[in-house]
Design a protein that fits this description.
The complex is a heterodimer of chains A (about 100) and B (about 450). Chain A has a domain at about 30-85. In chain A, about 70% of the residues lie in helices and about 0% in strands. Chain A is built from four helices and no strands. Chain B is of the alpha/beta class and about 450 residues long. In chain B, helix 1 runs parallel beside helix 9 and helix 5 packs antiparallel against helix 6. In chain B, about 55% of the residues are buried. Classes of the chains: A mainly alpha (about 100), B alpha/beta (about 450).
Chain lengths: ~100, ~450
């Protein structure tokens, strides 16, 4: 791919990332980290591509190891983030006094 | 046998990238966060389906089995893990992600032609390996498999410098020759750098290390996207790199130290070393009944929860105590230090688990001016984040760290297991202050007794 195109994408993504993440409330920093963690599990795409091109058995074995690791990262990351965010979801119907919601 | 044209593939990857951005944007409010995360997961699924349809992929059955194995390992762990163990889990997933990126780069070495992509291969291999071993050591420290105290030996700085230099040389040879032997050497050096980077970091600084390694893995993934010419990987990796960088800086600010000071402070010796000795100076210890009376007749109580609370699994009891006191007309708030717990925002998760509404959780800047008008500051299992040494003793390892000013409250009650210093191993002068009362014991036991005593009043 054309290096300048790549550079453009990287620079724009940096700005989008900073913009979006700086708005995340500090209450949610742990889910942010595990969510971001899940997102880099998308390296699974790369692992699938290399595994799909591996012809020699031991190269394939390495690639499949990468697939296992990347899947664990991706699936585990999203599952655990969902579990955490479920706890932050408002449980009381609207209008309830938040102070009473501790019960 | 590609079913999708490159154009359609590009469009679908773009949609997946937008899903990831929406996932992060959803986190700006607890109300939208969960939906955002599900959108992100949908984006990931779309991307995985797309890759099978777009490129020539052999070995599909083996790949599907590998995916099944990975899911079968990760999903049950993620469902069952205790919220207190979240930092370990995040570090673990971070490590395997970094490791996967490094492996992908190794396998792409032979097919990358341009010097550009070879440099990207070298970068991915090195950073991925650093992230892998660094995360492994972090998990070890958090799980107590290895000591959480900084591990320092004389000449560490020179060893580190030498290893990094050797890695640069090996990386240069990989780019120049493309020989696999150099690549293996580079990987091993990367693993060594990761371990050397994290071993000297004190336990209290681990939250920073986790976010930093998160950023590293993101960058490794972005670089692997450059290697494979896959824009989705580039965008996703860069997003994660940005979020990790922001969190790392936020954490460092919350500790009042520069990132480099935390990472390399130990190289100069004595950073967060602290002492393990117990002092035998007199303190005022009390019983649960007296603490209950103090709390019951206070107008305003601020609870400062720390990691000790989480370890004792006392979140639910303290939430109940807060509700009980509220019902009796006491104004109760929770003061959350940014580094309470073992990762950024960890305490918020633990209290959310105990059904404390997030509106009752106050951040440091918001709550510090209010301590003056607080009758009782109830510190449960926290130590370093309320240690005035951070303000008063320039020689202290935590000097400069912003703290919760519990000393400003009219009275301070500490619930502590023992007089042992906290995770950072630094003694707390506040414990000997005349207005401080201590209640010794396991945080959950003590809270249960106090709660019972309050109910009996």
């Amino acid at each position: 791919m054309d290096p300048i195109t790549l550079l453009t994408v990287v620079v724009l993504a940096v700005f989008v990332g900073f913009e979006v993440v700086s708005k995340v409330s500090s209450t949610l920093h742990t889910p942010l980290m595990s969510g971001a963690n899940a997102i880099h599990g998308i390296i699974l795409i790369g692992a699938i591509i290399v595994a799909g091109q591996s012809l020699e058995p031991w190269l394939l074995a390495l690639a499949l190891l990468a697939v296992v690791m990347a899947t664990a990262n991706l699936v585990g990351g999203f599952v655990v983030t969902d579990r955490m965010l479920k706890m932050f979801a408002p449980r009381k119907p609207a209008g309830a006094n938040p102070k009473d919601a501790t019960k | 046998m590609s079913l999708l044209s490159p154009e359609w593939t590009g469009v679908l990857y773009l949609i997946a990238a937008v899903c990831f951005i929406l996932a992060l944007r959803g986190l700006s409010s607890p109300k939208t966060a969960r939906r955002g995360n599900l959108i992100g997961a949908a984006g990931a699924l779309l991307a995985v389906i797309t890759v099978f349809l777009s490129a020539r992929i052999e070995n599909i059955p083996a790949i599907l089995i590998a995916i099944a194995v990975g899911s079968a390992i990760a999903a049950p762990i993620s469902r069952r893990v205790e919220m207190t163990q979240m930092p370990q889990l995040v570090a673990l997933f971070n490590g395997v992600g970094g490791g996967a990126a490094a492996l992908v780069a190794v396998l792409e070495l032979s097919s990358s032609e341009s010097p550009w992509s070879k440099v990207a291969v070298v970068f991915t291999m090195f950073v991925g390996a650093v992230s892998f071993s660094g995360s492994a050591v972090t998990v070890g420290k958090l799980q107590g498999l290895i000591s959480s105290r900084p591990l320092i030996f004389p000449g560490l700085a020179f060893v580190m410098g030498g290893v990094v230099l050797a890695a640069l040389v090996a990386g240069g040879f990989v780019v120049a020759t493309g020989w696999a032997g150099w690549a293996v050497a580079l990987l091993l050096l990367g693993l060594l750098v990761g371990a050397l980077l994290v071993l000297p970091v004190g336990g209290a600084d681990v939250p920073i290390v986790i976010s930093l390694l998160n950023a590293f893995t993101g960058l490794a993934v972005a670089a692997s996207g450059i290697v494979l010419g896959n824009l989705l990987l580039v965008v996703a990796g860069t997003l994660v790199g940005a979020s990790g960088t922001i969190l790392t800086r936020a954490m460092a600010a919350a500790m009042g130290r520069g990132v480099s000071g935390i990472l390399f402070g130990a190289f100069k010796g004595g950073s967060t070393a602290g002492s393990t000795t117990q002092s035998d100076r007199p303190v005022r210890s009390s019983n649960p009944e007296d603490v209950a009376v103090l709390l019951n007749y206070a107008q305003r109580v601020v609870i400062v929860p720390g990691y000790g609370l989480a370890v004792a699994q006392g979140q639910h009891t303290i939430a109940e105590l807060a509700t009980t006191l509220e019902a009796r007309g006491v104004d109760v708030a929770f003061a959350i230090h940014p580094v309470a717990g073992r990762m950024p925002g960890h305490m918020n998760v633990l209290l959310a688990e105990a059904n404390v509404p997030y509106e009752a959780l106050k951040e440091m800047a918001e709550v510090n001016p209010e301590f003056k008008n607080t009758d009782i500051a109830l510190v449960v299992g926290a130590n370093d984040v309320v240690n005035p040494a951070a303000k008063t003793s320039p020689g202290s390892p935590i000097y400069g760290m912003p703290i919760l000013d519990v000393g400003e409250a009219r009275q301070v009650v500490f619930l502590k297991r023992s007089m042992r210093p906290g995770f950072a191993g630094i003694e707390n002068e506040l414990l000997y202050d005349p207005k401080t009362t201590l209640l010794f014991g396991d945080a959950k036991d003590s809270l249960t007794k106090v709660l019972g005593a309050v109910n009996a009043l």
